[in-house]
Amino acid sequence: SGNDQILALGSALLNNFIYERVRRHGDGDAEVTRDQLGGVELCDPSHKRLAQCLQQIGDELDGNMQLQRMLNDSALQPTQDVFMRVARGIFSDGKFNWGRVVALFYFACRLVIKAISTKIPDIIRTIISWTMSYIQEHV
Fold first, then answer.
1. Rounded Cα–Cα distance for residues 123 and 102 (Å)
2. Sign of the C-alpha dihedral computed for residues 25, 29, 33 and 35 taken in this order
3. How far is residue 3 from each of residues 85, 136, 139, measured CA to CA in Å?
4. Which of 5, 17, 27, 103 is buried most deeply by CB count within 10 Å?
5. What's the family (predicted)?
6. C-alpha to C-alpha distance for 121 and 30, rounded to whole angstroms
7. Mean pLDDT of all residues in 92-109
């Protein structure tokens, strides 16, 4: 169905977003494989272009100091409670757009990097599933 296709694409874009950001912005310690993410490489040229746009929005979020302060807080732990609180905050006014979806992807990516750097890589797919579940239920 159309919904399943959208979710499959969303999942592929999320996996790609995290993979590329970790590859580009990881600190050497943080490495992740497509296999760990449970994703496949994007093949469709239009999906690749969309993925590049998402990366550009992610690059803009790198410059948001308020966001960076929040994400760099040592108290920020990759738990479902923290994830859901932030996800609800991103969409608190009930409006959905690509920028906000990318903000959610960006946050999930930062949790993945935190999980890798604190040596709990087993939670990576769990974070991805929280993200996709939230999108499926609310977006």
1. 20
2. negative
3. 25, 9, 11
4. 17
5. Belongs to the Bcl-2 family.
6. 10
7. 91
Shortest CA distance to 104 belongs to which of 131, 77, 139, 137?
131
First to last CA, the chain: 17
Please state the φ and ψ torsions of residue 106, each to the nearest 5 degrees. Answer: -60, -45
Residue 124 corresponds to which amino acid?
I
Cα separations (Å) of 86 from 31, 41, 71, 106, 126?
24, 28, 11, 11, 16
34-70 confidence digits (pLDDT tens): 888 887 889 999 999 999 999 999 999 999 998 888 8
pLDDT recorded at residue 130: 95
| pLDDT for position 74 | 77
Tell which residue, 107, 56, 51, 59, has the closest CA to residue 79.
107
CA atoms of 128 and 104, how far apart (whole Å) = 11
**Nearest C-alpha neighbor of 21 from the set 131, 130, 114:** 114
> Domains of the chain, with CATH numbers?
2-138 (1.10.437.10)
CB 103 within 8 A of CB 88: no
